[in-house]
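Reviewers of the previous submission asked for a worked example of the structure-prediction workflow described in the proposal, so we include one complete record here. The input consisted solely of the amino acid sequence. No template or homolog information was supplied to the procedure at any stage.
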Amino acid sequence: MATLNYRCPNCGASHEVDEALVGDRVDCRKCGRPFEAAMPVARPSEGEATGQSEYRVAAGEGEVEDTILQVHPAMARKHPFRFLGICLVVIAGLAAMVIGAAGGAALPGNAPPMVLLASGAVIAALGAVYWLVWWAQTRFTMLTITSRRSTLRRGLIARETSEVQHRDVRNLQINQTTLERLLGVGDIAISSAGQDGLEIHVEGIPHPEKVAAVVRDMQS
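From that input alone, the workflow returned the following structure tokens.
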């Protein structure tokens, strides 16, 4: 199968793309960002010897896609009380571990300090694991705005991707509670023509008004 050579517009790495994938989006093997393997553009040039027209193919020329904005959901600002609760659980567990390691003198009946030490370790570990899973969910959720489209990617191993071309956007929603407005965070949803649902919906985006303004600018 024939291949065409493309250069990633994000990092400049060179890629050989199968002819069957021309017109689709492919992931850069170096930076991991997607780019479109656009249909090659042909330009006529006069042959020097024969005088006949020859065609020089410039793969992807005129189809450069620039990344304008990349943003992850916020943790503490979207769910401040949950974030505070996890911190308190971890602190309580660590405090119990310290008291247990000190000999448990404050324990009634001279109970074994290992009980308090082990309990504190379990509580602190559970809080830390919960925080880590939550962090991973936000870290591996990313909204990318390019010069041509908005793309939402979720997951590290099992990945879900949704995208909307800027020229097709017909519905752009921002949802914020009063507290979220004070904290500068909110939900954003994007849908295109001919779709009943929302192709892109992500919660806890910092400064959603600025994100929506970028999308509107790319539409013009």
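DSSP finds four helices and 13 strands in the chain. We consider this example representative of the routine output the project will generate in years two and three.
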